[in-house]
TrEMBL record:
The chain crosses the membrane at residues 20-42, 54-74, 95-116. It is found in: Cell membrane. It comes from Filobacillus milosensis. This is DUF202 domain-containing protein. It is a multi-pass membrane protein. Its main location: membrane. InterPro entries: DUF202, IM_YidH-like. It comes from the Bacteria. It holds the Pfam family DUF202. The keyword Transmembrane helix applies. Keywords: Cell membrane, Membrane, Transmembrane, Transmembrane helix. GO terms for cellular component: plasma membrane.
Amino acid sequence: MKSTIESKYITQHLANERTYLAWIRTALAMIGIGFLIVNIHFSMSSTSDFSNQLAQWIGIFSVVLGLLIIVFATSSYLIKKKQINEQTFQSSNRVVWMVSILSIILSILFFLYFLVF
């Protein structure tokens, strides 16, 4: 077999793949949390209109957040793969900041939900 450019940086590529898979697990967890809150909420009997809307927003926001994480993680993975091969790698904070800020917003929505409920 002929050696490829990527074979020179096997450990870096494998680390990049592990990081990508960790982001995917995070995205699936965010989506799952949204479904969990919505299912628990609507299985309860007496709820207010505000708590119904808040539960729906938490569900929608969680799914959107999960999908955004998948898109940004895939983009980041492909960019890093190219940077590793070209030896021009620079760490990016974009995905980390995006997930952090949106997770804080989601946490505030959870807090409001449990405060009202």
